[in-house]
Design goal:
CATH architecture of the largest domain in chain A: 3-Layer(aba) Sandwich
Radius of gyration of chain A: 20 Å
Distance between the termini of chain B: 76 Å
Number of strands of chain B: 0
Shape of chain A: globular
CATH superfamily of the largest domain in chain A: P-loop containing nucleotide triphosphate hydrolases
Largest interface: A-B, 48 and 39 residues
Bound molecules: adenosine-5'-triphosphate, magnesium ion
Number of helices of chain B: 12
Strand content of chain B: under 5%
Strand content of chain A: 15-25%
Number of helices of chain A: 10
CATH architecture of the largest domain in chain B: Orthogonal Bundle
Oligomer: heterodimer
Number of domains of chain A: 2
Helix content of chain B: over 70%
Strand order of the largest sheet of chain A: 7-8-9-3-10-11
Distance between the termini of chain A: 24 Å
Largest sheet of chain B: none
Number of domains of chain B: 2
Number of strands of chain A: 11
Order of helices and strands of chain B: HHHHHHHHHHHH
CATH topology of the largest domain in chain B: ABC transporter involved in vitamin B12 uptake, BtuC
Largest sheet of chain A: 6 strands, mixed
Chain lengths: ~280, ~300
């Protein structure tokens, strides 16, 4: 476990309201460089909403989000207008994600899904592709993009499925492909929304290994939402627990597991989740 | 049938193809539907025609001027409407196309409803051929680059594209402007073939026809758009002797193709992909087999427990 590194992501009193519903209520936490940080809570606790706030899909109702020391979103307050970077800008700064309900480029091949996301590794202009000759900046960069996409497929064990239309992949592989696509932008922070959903125990195990190894290989910081307690407890350095949009507890897996508030929330709202983890 | 007659249809195919190529980028690749492309075509046609007939410019610069004018208007339209959700954008283009036609009808400098006549006859088989070859190659080159792939990503899933760091507004704008330029050049070619133009040549039915061609040929396929243009331009001409029935047959032909090939003639593939198809199919079959055996093994283990 690496800790005491510099702050990568910081939520300060983050709040999000949908009409009368407060989906995220005054949530504060800090993720440090190299950490694998878990975000857990019963269904509807506001986990995915937090991802959408970090990504800029939703604007904050209140509070502030900092990435690498820079403010990327800030709710309006007295004498201050709201600040909100656009989702693509936040992605370009180095935060990428996967989706709870997988969002691949469905009708494209596995390879094309990753190749598209490699686009930031090239900077040739709109007109350069018109001259398709060897040795131009266009062809050199394009070749580099292709290598990069192939390397990522290799890393995620998807090379064999390279030409398969992504929607035809089984669930587990689609989730891996989403991770490959997210890695293609060379992120600093990777957000994973229930990456083990629909996976069997072995797949979950190998996913755990993989999350650790990509963290080390790419010097990543990882924020992960998961209901699978085996995975969360096994892989995370620290965990933040939400319930009805509010922070309930934060700490190492063992601290969180023994917290009475957490046990009560889980037993009250959704039988069995923590127990399954303890089994 | 005389060569002269066929040549006429081929020239018609040529300027229609320029508009369809542009629309193919916008609809087939970026996934944005437009029912206003006749408007861009009209802008290109009028600008180029005024250039040659009124200002005495040579054909080629006038043609480019028409394309540029359409592109500028496209940029204006895009900056106002591309923030809208897909369906609203489509309705906005519909309004745009009709607005262009009505403005031209009421603008005396461009002849009102009578239009512009006395345009020099410059468009021939060579000029449409050059325009179409250059247009096709440039479009293919764009599509097979990071820019083209970013545009395709928008069609596939706009949110996922944004999360992949793609400035979707900018790329939709690029697609719309290029699309408008192509339509404008198509309009200029039309004007210098007919030697006169009138606002009623650019009615919404025209825009609809171009969209039908793109869908008929297959979304996301440049070669599909070309084949679609050829078939759907020649077909009504071939059936001219059937009078009004030809439109019925045209309609049935479109329905027939869409039923047997719901994703259009080429279904998102280029002609060159067809040669790679057997290898692709084999790879897909092998992958499917492996997936299946993995799932069976998984199910077996489940059962053991
Ligand atoms: N766009 C939206 N508009 C209105 N309400 C929303 C919206 N998105 C989420 N919510 C509400 O916010 C609450 C939190 O939802 P969220 O998706 O963040 O939960 P979650 O913790 O990810 O749950 P799950 O474990 O089921 O994925 C829910 O009550 C949900 O209905
Ligand atoms: Mg969720």
């Amino acid at each position: 476990m690496k800790s005491g590194g510099k702050e990568v992501l910081k939520l300060e009193h983050a709040t999000k309201q949908f009409g009368g519903l407060t989906a995220v209520d005054d949530v504060t936490f800090t993720i440090r460089e190299g950490e694998i940080f878990g975000l857990i809570g019963p269904n509807g606790a506001g986990k995915t909403t937090i991802f959408n706030l970090i990504n800029g899909v939703y604007a904050l109702s209140g509070g502030k989000i900092l990435f690498d020391g820079k403010t990327i979103a800030e709710g309006a307050a007295e004498g201050r207008k709201a600040l909100q970077l656009k989702p693509f800008q936040i992605a370009q700064m180095g935060i990428t994600r996967t989706f709870q309900n997988i969002r691949l480029f469905k009708n494209l091949s596995v390879y094309d899904n990753v190749l598209i996301a490699c686009h930031r590794s090239a900077n040739y202009s709109l007109f350069e592709p018109l001259l398709r000759l060897k040795g131009t900046r266009f062809s050199k960069q394009e070749k580099a993009l292709k290598h990069k996409a192939e390397d990522l497929l290799d890393l995620m064990g998807l090379t064999f499925y390279r030409d398969v239309i992504s929607v035809n992949l089984p669930y587990g592989l689609q989730r891996k492909l989403e991770i490959a696509r997210a890695l293609a932008l060379d992120p600093k922070l990777l957000l994973l929304d229930e990456p083990a959903a629909g996976m069997n125990p072995e797949e979950t195990d190998s996913l755990m290994q993989m999350i650790r190894s990509i963290r080390d290989k790419f010097d990543l910081t990882v924020l992960i939402i998961e209901h699978h307690m085996d995975l969360i407890m096994g892989v995370c350095d620290r965990i933040h627990v939400l319930n009805f949009g509010k922070s309930l507890a934060e700490g190492t897996p063992s601290q969180v597991q023994s917290s009475p508030a957490v046990i009560e929330a889980y037993l009250g709202a959704q039988d069995g989740c923590v127990k399954e983890g303890e089994r | 049938m005389s060569w002269y007659y066929i040549e006429g249809i081929l020239i018609q195919c040529g300027y229609v193809l320029m508009v369809v190529l542009g629309l193919s980028l916008l609809t087939g690749f970026a996934g944005l539907f437009s029912f206003g492309h006749a408007g861009f075509m009209a802008i290109g046609a009028y600008m180029a025609a005024i250039g040659t007939a009124k200002w005495g410019l040579p054909f080629f610069p006038a043609l480019l001027m028409g394309g540029a004018a359409a592109g500028v208007v496209g940029a204006g339209l895009g900056s106002m409407t591309l923030n809208l959700k897909g369906d609203y954008f489509c309705i906005a283009t519909l309004g745009f196309g009709e607005a262009v036609r009505l403005i031209l009808e009421n603008w005396e400098y461009v002849g009102g409803a009578r239009g512009v006549s006395g345009i020099p006859w410059e468009t021939n088989l060579n000029s449409v051929l050059i325009a179409c070859v250059v247009g096709t190659l440039a479009l293919m080159a764009l599509i097979r680059s990071r820019h083209g792939r970013n545009i395709i990503a928008i069609r596939e899933d706009e949110l996922a594209a944004q999360m992949s760091g793609i400035n979707t507004f900018r790329y939709k704008m690029i697609a719309l402007i290029i699309s408008a330029v192509y339509a404008g050049i198509g309009g200029g070619l039309l004007a210098h073939y007919m030697t006169y133009i009138q606002p009623k040549m650019f009615q919404m039915v025209k825009s609809t026809e171009y969209t039908i061609i793109v869908i008929f040929g297959g979304m996301g396929s440049v070669t599909g758009s070309i084949i679609g243009t050829l078939i759907l331009t020649f077909l009504p001409e071939m059936l001219r002797s059937l009078d009004n029935w030809r439109l019925v047959i045209y309609g049935l032909a479109v329905i027939f193709i869409m039923v047997i090939r719901p994703r259009g003639l080429m279904g998102g593939m280029e002609l060159s992909d067809i040669f790679r198809l057997p290898a692709r199919r084999r790879a897909a079959r092998m992958a499917a087999e492996r997936i299946k055996s993995m799932e069976d093994a998984g199910a077996g283990k489940e059962a053991q427990r």
